[in-house]
Every structure is written in structure tokens, then in C-alpha cells.
Amino acid sequence: MKSLRIVMFTTFYPPYSFGGDAIGVQRMARALAARGHRVTVVHDEDSYLVLGGSAPVSTPRADDVQRIGLRSKNGFLSNLLTQQTGRPVIHAPRIRRLLDDIRPDIIWYNNTSLVGGPGLLRLGEALKIYEAHEHWLVCPTHVLWRYGRELCDRRDCLKCVISYRRPPQLWRYTGMLDRALDGIDLIVAKSEFSRAKHREFGLRQKMEVLPYFLPDIDGAAPRAPSGHPRPYFLFVGRLEKIKGLQDVFPAMDRYRDADLLILGDGDYATELKALASANPRIHFLGRKTPEELDAYYRGALGLIVPSVCYETFGIILIESFRLGTPVIARRLGPFPEIVEASGGGVLFDSEESLIEAMRQLQVSPDRRALLASAARDAFEKIWREDRVLAAYGAALARAAHGKGDGALARALEGGAFEGAGA
């Protein structure tokens, strides 16, 4: 099996990252490295630090991925130049040297907003893939959340960006991004919903849907106790207003038979804690290790996913499915397609339907067991690492044929992305 040289570009990458998108990029990088490929990840440390991130205090665990963190003498200026010009102004010479030295077979872009913008997409000669973890390709704020208060259903970008107190990006009105995307061989959406939104908001290039994945674990392993004494529902994620957790609290005030455990932190934590202060059954437990998260997932009656914005996927749903825990998700964005494809959860669109869904999972153990079994089975069939990596290999092989790179196409068809995961 041929070992491929792969360079991945991303604005955020652990430990210089805030949320789940960067974890998804890291998971892919490690999965590819575990299959014998030489993987180099280039990310922008300045972006993380300028946006309020703290410098890591511990060394990341060793893996086979080469991580290159870009940092300049004036990180704010570097980020501002990239944001305003759409080009990696400060870091372009280093990036060109790196690509010349590695001579990658595949260049893999992941939301390049501050690591180089659309100008980065033109650098290098290789098979090129762009993975749209957010809606940055069609939305300057990345999230299609207009004025910071409502779902976006039409373009009003200039006013919206100003409402976010961000400088407008004039390059978005020049066709620069559109022309750069014409040079990308495979553009990936994370869900059918996200592909449709990209098309609705003007993306003319073809997208292929390839989901997130997780490495498998022993689904039959004994349930690890979470240590919580009462039945509980679970929320996992960043504490931001767009995640919709505030909408769950009124339901919890009425539903007294179980607790709500909240795992995560974020900018909206103080407000959320104030909103929930009168309810002793709502518990904020902060960040947890992966092993602790698994214990809480396993012990939960169900995972509640109440996001009020347009997510591109929803990786916490498959985290829950992997451990055989049903989900209760808002009927919005990609959640209906994920829940319906799995049969592993219930959808809600009101306070009443949320309460009814919680009641179903708690008072009908047979019903919950059916959902739990369906969730686990769907994870095995759809979102397990080896299955998703094989789909990526096939998609990239088709793209390589389209580019006229028969040697790379044959390597990918020969199983370059198959084999045991990390």
C-alpha cells in the first residue's frame, strides 16, 4: 500500500482550538497517519490567541502527525491582513516553502478563514480537497445566524457583519473565493442539509456529502457509573447562545423526575448559570476527559441537542450513538436527517414535545432500549471510522481520475485509506 504525503490546512487545531470542528480535523489527521500516510497539519496559532485562547499549559499527546503552528511577531496584524485581503500575507513564503519541500499528493483544506483565506487555495500542486466544517464559504460569520439573533434566510451580509463588530471582507464581493474553489477537486459538505444550504446561498460548485466519524469502541462494555445519584439527561458542548441550552431550562422546571447534567464551558456560561440558578436539578459540571464523557453518555437517559442555529453536522449525536444512548434533538438543520437515518432518537420542536420526549425515554424502558439498539447499530453501519475513511478514499479516487492523476487514483482504489484505525 502506497504511503501518501498529505498536508492539511486549518485555522484551529488542538491544543490551539475552541470547539468540535478542530477535534474532527485532528481525528482525521490521526486516522490517516495510523494508515501509514505522512500527515502534516498547518494551523494558525495567532488566530486562537488573538480570539482569547490561552496558551496550552500541557504538551499534546504524542502521535504520528506533524503539527506546524504558524505564529508571527504581530498576530493581530497577521490575522487582520488575512481577513481583509483573503490571502496569507505574512505566512505565504513559509507556506510555499513547506509545500515545495513536502510535495504533497493531497492538500486538504479545512475552513481556511484565518490561516490563509481563499488565496491559500491557489497554493501548491496536488489533488485538493476542501472540507466545509462550517458555512464560511457562503457566510462571513460562518454560522448563518443573522445579526446574532436569528436564523438567516437571505443575504444581508454587510449589515450582519457590522452587527458582529467585524470588519467587512470586500474580497467576498469580487468573485475571488468562487474562482479559487474552481481549482478544488473535491468539496465536502458534512450533511445533506449543509450541502443544500451552501447551494441556497450561492455556492455553484458541486459538493459531496461525507460525514464525521468516530473510532469504534466496545459497545458491549459494562456501563461505567457517572457517579450521579439520580436519573439524568445530558447536554454536551460549548456554552454559547446558539447552542440553545437556555430553551431547555423551562422544560426542566416542569419535568421533575430527572436532572440535567451540562458538560462543557463557553462564553455564555455565566448567563446560563444565572438562568438556571433556581433549579437544583440542573448541574453545570464543566469540561470532562474523554473517559469521563463516555461514562456520562452511558449513564444518561438521553442526550439533548437543542441548537437554534444551522449546524453542519452534530458530532455529539454520533458520540451518543456510539455508546448506545438515544438522542433528543431539535427538528432543525442536519439533526432530522441524522436521527431519521439512525432511528436512534426523537425530534422536538417545542417545549411540550421536548417534555414528552424526555418522558418517553424515562418511563418506557422498552422504547428506550429499541432506540438505544438502533443508535448503536447505525453508528456501526454509517459513522464508524473504517466505513467513513473508505468513503473518503473512493471520493478522492474519483477526484484523482477527474484530475488525470491515474497513479494517485490507483493508490486510493487499492486501499490507501483502508485498514485499521487509530
Describe this structure as you would to a colleague.
By secondary structure, the protein is α/β, with parallel strands linked by helices. The strands form four sheets. The protein has a seven-stranded parallel beta sheet. A three-stranded parallel beta sheet has the order 10-11-12, with helices on one face. A three-stranded parallel beta sheet has the order 13-14-15, with helices on both faces. It has two domains: 5-214 and 384-413, Rossmann fold (3-Layer(aba) Sandwich), CATH 3.40.50; 232-383, Rossmann fold, CATH 3.40.50. The chain is globular. The chain contains 17 helices and 15 strands. Helix 16 (385-403) runs antiparallel to helix 17 (406-413).
Question: How would you sum up this structure in a few lines?
Answer:
The chain has helices at residues 20-34, 45-50, 75-85, 92-102, 117-120, 157-163, 176-181, 192-200, 249-254, 269-275, 290-299, 315-322, 335-342, 351-363, 365-383, 385-403, 406-413, and strands at 5-10, 38-44, 66-70, 106-110, 127-132, 145-146, 150-151, 186-189, 208-209, 232-236, 259-263, 282-286, 303-305, 327-330, 345-348.
